[in-house]
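Just curious. Invent one:
>
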Amino acid sequence: MESRSRGSTRNPLGGNTFLVIDDEESMLEVVKYFLELEGFNVVTASNGQDGIARFRENPGGIGAVFLDLSMPDLAGEKVFLDIRKMRHDVPILIASGHSKAHVVEQFKGQQYTDFLQKPFEIEELIKKVGSRFKKSSV
């Protein structure tokens, strides 16, 4: 499901979309809501397989990914690797209840954009998105 930004802010990814992959419905809704307030278009996926499928539908149109690591159907690491195979340069924000040290070790040698420890404050999400995912538009 894709939705347009409610605000008048120009999409900082130049018309691209943020893909949010998380198995927790409440997390999907909250992250989607606040990303839309920041001016992003948002597509959501409630599990890893759906996330891969949505990315595969339009890999060039996805400007960034919010990826939960712990999902029941498919491990977040597998989702990460599949997305990287399709497009190695897409920014990926990894969200996990595990510690940053655990995630750094798990993704040793892999290139992810940033990490967000769950549970997190909305301000943390906005700060990470603002500093790492916004690109200047031309």
Notes: Residues 2-126 form a domain with the Rossmann fold fold (CATH 3.40.50.2300). Residues 1-15 have pLDDT under 50 and may be disordered. The chain has five helices and six strands.
